[in-house]
Amino acid sequence: MPTILRVDGFRFYFYSHEPNEPAHVHIDKGNATAKIWLHDGSVARSVGFASHELRVLQRLVAEHQTLLQEAWNAYFAQ
Fold first, then answer.
1. Which of 1, 67, 72, 74 has the greatest number of C-beta atoms within 10 Å?
2. What is the pLDDT along the chain (78 residues), one digit of tens a residue?
């Protein structure tokens, strides 16, 4: 599970066994975890994050969308 980015204690990564799903990123901080789709920034699932934290995560995904998408494309093109 390659880590793509770390920001303010959040770890952005994806699982290498999910190439058939649309591009997305998993985000962890402490015991909280979320999955966010890259194409529209919507939250696929979340456990342990408060709504205001999810808004922060969606903003961070939008800010780093190019980096995240390029990492996804490069990894799964192998």
1. 72
2. 789 999 999 999 999 888 789 999 999 999 999 999 999 999 999 999 999 999 999 999 999 999 999 999 999 886
Looking at the structure of the chain, the number of domains it has is: 1
Q: Give the neighbor-by-neighbor strand order of the sheet with 10-13.
A: 3-7, 10-13, 24-29, 32-37, 43-47
Q: For residues 75 and 57, give the distance between their C-alpha atoms in angstroms, rounded to a whole number.
A: 22
Could you tell me the pTM of the whole model?
A: 0.92
Contact 33, 19 (CB under 8 A): no
Containing structural domain, residue 18: 3-76
Q: List alpha helices for 1-78, DSSP H.
A: 51-63, 65-76
